[in-house]
Design brief:
This is Transcriptional regulator. The protein has about 100 residues and is an alpha+beta fold. It is built from three helices and four strands; from the N terminus they run H-E-E-H-H-E-E. The relative contact order is 0.23.
């Protein structure tokens, strides 16, 4: 995902991140508080190795918001909260802007 030239607002950042997650097969649905990941392309592996797979997905989400310089980030990921159909929930939080960030 390319770095943003200018900081995005919350809605635009969530749209960009959910678009990327959708292209990866997660079928996300989002609002300003959370992202529902309604499908895991690695579901069988996630059930067996939850910690590894879910932490990778959490890292992808965090990195995507960081790369965008978004005013929102991931507070936590609740993995496999529902098994059929599979559902994971990423809870979002508002972030303070750091004056030393590379984003305006």
């Amino acid at each position: 995902m390319p770095l943003a030239m200018a900081a995005l607002d919350t809605g635009a950042a969530i749209d960009r991140v959910t678009g990327a997650m959708d292209r990866l097969g997660f079928r996300p649905v989002a609002d300003e508080r959370r992202i529902l990941l309604r499908h895991c392309p690695f579901a069988d592996l996630a059930r067996a190795e939850r910690t590894v797979v879910c932490n990778i997905h959490l890292g992808l989400l965090e990195a995507a918001f960081d790369d965008l310089g978004a005013p929102v980030g991931v507070e936590r990921l609740d993995p496999l909260v529902q098994s059929d159909p599979l559902l994971c929930v990423a809870h979002l939080r508002t972030r303070e802007r750091n004056p030393h960030d590379r984003h305006p």
